[in-house]
C-alpha cells in the first residue's frame, strides 16, 4: 500500500523515535512511504530549504496518491491537522495515533468520520501493533 505518514516537524520532535519506529515497520512490511524521510533526525534542516509552495504541492500530491494516511499526533502541528482534514475530505482512511498521556485536539478525538481511527498507546512498541491492525482492517475492506 501507499501510505502517507504525517508527524510534527516544526512543532517539536519529542516523539521522533516513535516516528522512526512507525516508518521502519511500514517499510519492513513492504509499504511505499513517500514521507518516511520526515521521521529522520535532521529533517527540520532539510525541510527549511524547501519553499512553502513546493511543500504544499508535494504533500497534497502525495496525499491524493496514498491509500491511507497515518499520523502521529502526540505533538500538536498545524500541518498535520491540515493533512488529516485534507485526506478525510478525499475519503481516505486515516489513523491518528498518540501517546495515552498526551492531550489531543477534540477536532480529532470528537470527529465522527467513519474513515478516521484514533488509537492511543502507552509504550512505544504498541504503536506498531496499532498501525498494523489499522492497515489490516483497510486491506480486508478492499
List the helices and strands and how they pair.
Layout: E1 3-6, H1 16-28, H2 43-48, H3 52-65, E2 68-72, H4 78-89, E3 94-99, H5 106-109, E4 116-121, H6 124-141
Parallel strand pairs: 1-2, 2-3, 3-4
Features:
single chain, 142 residues, alpha/beta, Rossmann fold, four-stranded parallel sheet, 4 strands, 15% strand
What is the CATH topology descriptor?
Answer: Rossmann fold
Spatial sequence of strands, sheet with the most strands? 1-2-3-4
Give the C-alpha Rg: 14 Å
Kindly name the structural category: alpha/beta
| Global morphology | globular
**Looking at the chains present, what oligomeric state does this protein adopt?**
single chain
Q: What are the segments in which pLDDT stays under 50 over at least 5 consecutive residues?
A: none
Largest sheet: 4 strands, parallel
Span from first to last CA? 11 Å
Total strand segments = 4
**Helical percentage:** 40-55%
Order of helices and strands: EHHHEHEHEH
Q: Kindly state the mean pLDDT as a whole number?
A: 93
At the first level of CATH, the class is Alpha Beta
CATH architecture verdict: 3-Layer(aba) Sandwich
Given the structure, what is the number of helices? Answer: 6
Number of domains: 1
Strand content: 5-15%
Please provide a brief summary of the model:
By secondary structure, this protein is of the alpha/beta class. It is built from six helices and four strands; from the N terminus they run E-H-H-H-E-H-E-H-E-H.
